[in-house]
Amino acid sequence: MQGNATTGRRRRGKTSARLRERGSPGVAPAYVKREIPFFPFAGEEALVKLEEQADWLMQEVGLEFRDDDEALRIWRAAGADVDGTRVRAPGDMIRALCATAPSEFTQVARNPERSVRIGGGNQVFAPVYGPPFVRDLDNGRRYGAMENFVDLVKLTYALPSLHHGGLVVCEPCDVPVSKRHLDMVYAHMRWSDKPHLGAITEMSRAEDSVAMARILHGEETLEESCAIMGNVNTNSPLLVDKVVTQSIRVYCGANQGIMVVPFILSGAMGPVSTAASIAQALAEAMMCCAFSQLVRPGAPFILGNFLSSMSLKSGAPTFGMPEPVISNFVIGQLARRLGLPLRCGGALTASKVADYQAACESSDSMLSTVLAGAHFVLQAAGWLEGGLCTGYEKLILDADRLGAYQVMLAGMPVDDNAMARDAYAEVEPAGHFLGCAHTMRNYETAFYEASMSDSDNVESWEERGSMDAQMRANERWKQLLESYEAPPIDPAVNEALEDFVARRKRELPDAWY
Amino acid sequence: MQGNATTGRRRRGKTSARLRERGSPGVAPAYVKREIPFFPFAGEEALVKLEEQADWLMQEVGLEFRDDDEALRIWRAAGADVDGTRVRAPGDMIRALCATAPSEFTQVARNPERSVRIGGGNQVFAPVYGPPFVRDLDNGRRYGAMENFVDLVKLTYALPSLHHGGLVVCEPCDVPVSKRHLDMVYAHMRWSDKPHLGAITEMSRAEDSVAMARILHGEETLEESCAIMGNVNTNSPLLVDKVVTQSIRVYCGANQGIMVVPFILSGAMGPVSTAASIAQALAEAMMCCAFSQLVRPGAPFILGNFLSSMSLKSGAPTFGMPEPVISNFVIGQLARRLGLPLRCGGALTASKVADYQAACESSDSMLSTVLAGAHFVLQAAGWLEGGLCTGYEKLILDADRLGAYQVMLAGMPVDDNAMARDAYAEVEPAGHFLGCAHTMRNYETAFYEASMSDSDNVESWEERGSMDAQMRANERWKQLLESYEAPPIDPAVNEALEDFVARRKRELPDAWY
Q1: Which residues of B touch A262 (CB under 8 A)?
Q2: Which of A244, A432, A435, A436 has the smallest number of CB atoms closer than 10 Å to its CB?
Q3: Which chain A residue has the Cα nearest residue B354?
Q4: Sheet-wide strand order for B383-384
Q5: What percentage of chain A exceeds 90 in pLDDT?
Q6: Of residues A181 and A444, which shows the higher confidence score?
Q7: Which residue in the set A272, A359, A363 is minimally distant from B439, CB to CB?
């Protein structure tokens, strides 16, 4: 792996040079170290009420754990009240188990400079996860294919404000479902050197993902560190099926990480109340965290939350509305009280295209996610149409804004240089600071330069063809794909990965479900 | 005026009914009462440093007060150190003067139900102010005319989340500059019943505005209440010209309100540092507040702040970037420490059209403005192109998002109904809450319904013509203008206003500067 580290460092040098040319210095660390406070949206009394409600759900109502006898055995052995498939446990017991999960951990990348620290004051951004469709300005909307998947992995690799690859940047619908996970995991390992996730849809697919991580990182690395994680949804309300428990057993069993995410549209999978839906999500995720710690104490666990509202007129899911904005802030507070890393939010929208609606909804969703202190932000770029579609242009545009959030998270210096008293000795009232020594000294690093924003006057903008943001982003993703260079990989490791994928594909039947 | 109040109440009944049809109940109060905490972005030490820097600027560097001998006389009489046109005063003296300004006051509207409370936990949204150009999808970009001005006043009246009319919704460039203020102020008084601002560009124009307010509201109202305000910029850095001091003298002299706004692009009108620019803005606005209190102790004063950054590549002003987002949060903290109402932020962008860039920049700018606790938000809807252009569609789209912010500002209930325990007795794990009693009980008021967001599936959206947000907004403003009904006005009052305007127009020469 040492070879990778060295060449990786060279690559990053080149990337940084490119970034400087684009005028965005300093926004491409492996992850964000937050320097600003958290937003205390809900008061102590409200937070305690939400925790009491979660405890009530866990202890009195209970959660269903279905289709996995081993999960029930584990709960029974731990002393939980198991009644058929209903599992109840006191809040204290669940909290004690949650306490063994690390509040902060590192997911190693094959390029060590891209390893991410998850939890505490750190924030990690990853792209959209799961859409069966893709859309771009040239070809419109169509089913995602492996070709698109590889494009999107390469773009994620090239975009400095995406720290992590996620996994299902789109569904590669031209590959049988039974084999898809192999191509997806391989693509992230081969065409990017950022950390990424593994499959969860079936136990064997999770096992394949961990096996591939062992080939890429080495057996020892996986014994000592988190190199791959799964991201899995509960079946809200209050049902945890085998997809969840088996994913936990595979990933945590191998000392790897798991992220469990109650996906709740208030009014459907939870009560039509933001507070109740938050408490329910908390209960579901806490029970899964406790379960992960019963499987392997100390295994990395990310408390997930994905809450949204719906249209009162049509019942359609809505995104970026004030209710999920509120839930981002509040779940951030609750996760910190539990001491667990948090996944929530993202650049979410119900819009079909990257228009004004999409940007308003995505921005309100994402700025609140960032202010809320979410440690791992899946869906931070590229999401369209309630998660059904990955937008090429939207990926570029969202990623550009992520750079702005990183600058905000760095806080505001107030040292002597920042206070600029010498500038006032040089510049008279009604004068200007454009050429003064303080400006010359600080100009290059003073402001975030959004590469997708056009701030020129209207005449220059019209001369260049009156291109709107989508059109500029369309040019940009093509440039990025054209200038893409694959990160180096040890040929022996690559061959071993290819062999593994080929063997498993031979063993598995073609299945489309 | 009683007649107005009564008919006004009838009108509001109709407006509310329309709102309910659109599915946005409860988002159209006269102003927002904030129920959530403020965001403590900067720590105590940083805030003290900024205040010390402001004191240093006021006491050691001093501000220029030019072209208004009366202003210098007032400062001298108050004991300030006046050296030529340079005025210096200790921070303590300035703070003591600022303390006589009300921390909260009411601006009365001609419809009393639309009077706004400014300061404390209240927030008031007003549209764009100042653009010489207008743009819509049908006619593109052109100079603003009186016809556009009246359209925009009517739209502001019709949009429930705009609480205040502002003044210069666009420059009516077809009316001589010397007479423009009369037509603008009259349009707000006649075509809307929301509160609005008066002119400031010349002392006589400010006087005309106050005179017209006396006609509309009655002499007594103006003696007792704030019925009109001026909004004026300092000439940063550190210059206060007669436009500012004379506006203060006219408005505060008549016991009306004034809002003084240092407009600083960091690196040009302030040092290339967010912290230093904030401190400078604070010093400039505090000196003007102190001056307003020397003119009339207790006169309503709004501490203004308008800070932005610039492109490192071109030097062009940028908007919605992380540096002004930070400044919104910090100036919010500083204004609260001073106990003064604050104007800052808005839905700002450098984009020429209402595209993804415009929405990202506007949203980050506006959500931070709202979280920062800005009491009066001018430029909250319709701003394009760095303030050079008013967008018809953008006005509609921004106003729709303002409704979402109002829901967020109302906070999250955690009462028994919100905790929905009865729903869990009715809904089994893996079931759904769609038809349960709790949902039926709460469905209609549960979520914000964004009227400009399309949350339907892609097939329905395509069937309706694949309209993006701008196209939907284009339809909406036409509908709103078509269904517009003027608020009733006492014919005698209207005639008196028309006579005043006609007389002043006869007295004034046509001038285009």
Answers
A1: none
A2: A435
A3: A356
A4: B140-143, B133-136, B389-391, B383-384
A5: 92
A6: A181
A7: A272
Which pairing describes strands A306-310 and A317-318: parallel, antiparallel, or unpaired? antiparallel
* ipTM of model over 0.85: yes
User: B207 and B252 in contact (C-beta within 8 Å)?
Assistant: no
Residue B276 sits at the chain A interface (C-beta within 8 Å): yes
Classify each residue of B419-449 as buried b or exposed e, where b means 16 or more C-beta atoms within 10 Å of its C-beta: bbbebbeebebbebbbebebbeebbeebbbb
**Average pLDDT of the residues in A253-269:** 97
Q: How far apart are CA A201 and CA A242, in angstroms?
A: 10
Tens of pLDDT, residue by residue over A1-43, are 333 333 333 333 333 333 333 333 333 689 999 999 999 999 9
Whether A284 contacts chain B with CB within 8 A: no
On chain A, the residues whose CB falls within 8 A of the CB of B323 are 407, 446-448
Rounded CA-CA distance B214/B227 in Å is: 9
The H or E element that residue A477 is part of is helix A469-482
Q: What is the DSSP letter of A289?
A: H
Q: What is the pLDDT of residues B238-278, one digit of tens each?
A: 999 999 999 999 999 999 999 999 999 999 999 999 999 99
CB-nearest partner of A458 from B355, B385, B393: B385
Contacts with A439 from chain B: Cβ below 8 Å: 267, 271-272
Q: Phi, psi at residue A459, to the nearest 5°?
A: -65, -50
Q: Is B475 on the interface with A (CB under 8 A)?
A: no
Q: Tokens 């009904």 belong to which residue?
A: B485
Cβ–Cβ gap B64/A272 under 8 Å: no
pLDDT lower than 70: segments of chain B: 1-28
Beta bridge partners of B445: none
Burial label for B143, CB within 10 Å (0-12, 13-18, 19+), is middle
DSSP H or E run through B240: strand B239-240
Q: Among B317, B391, B321, which Cα is nearest to B353's?
A: B391
DSSP state of A61: I
What is the pTM for the complete model shown? Answer: 0.94
Whether residue B420 contacts residue A271, with contact meaning beta carbons closer than 8 Å, is answered with yes
CB atoms under 10 Å from CB of B6, counted, come to: 13
pLDDT of residue B16: 37
Substitution target from A433, A466, A471 for chain B, most B beta carbons within 10 A? A433
Task: Find the mean pLDDT for residues A201-213.
Answer: 98
B447–A310 CB contact, under 8 Å: yes
Q: Give the contacts of B168 (CB within 8 A, at least 6 positions apart).
A: B129, B130, B131, B184
A:305-324 residues touching chain B, CB 8 A cutoff? 309-319, 321-323
A322-368 confidence digits (pLDDT tens)? 999 999 999 999 999 999 999 999 999 999 999 999 999 999 999 99
- Residues A325 and B159: their CA atoms lie apart, in Å, by 23
Q: Tell me what the pLDDT averaged over chain A comes to.
A: 94
Average pLDDT over residues A483-500: 97
The confidence score (pLDDT) of residue B315 equals 87
The set of residues, in sequence order, having a beta carbon less than 8 Å from that of A488 and lying 6+ positions away, is A3, A4, A7, A8, A11
Q: Say if CB A353 and CB A307 are below 8 A apart.
A: no
Closest chain A residue to B426, measured at CA:
A271
With CB atoms and an 8 Å threshold, state whether B323 touches A385: no
Q: How far is B140 from chain A (nearest CA, A)?
A: 12
> Which one of A233, A272, A370, A460 makes the best mutation probe of the B interface by having the most chain B beta carbons within 10 Å?
A272
Does A87 lie at the interface with B, CB-CB under 8 angstroms? Answer: no
Q: Do B326 and A43 touch (CB under 8 A)?
A: no
Q: Which of A24-38, A369-383, A460-474, B212-226 has the lowest mean pLDDT?
A: A24-38
Predicted pLDDT of residue B445: 87
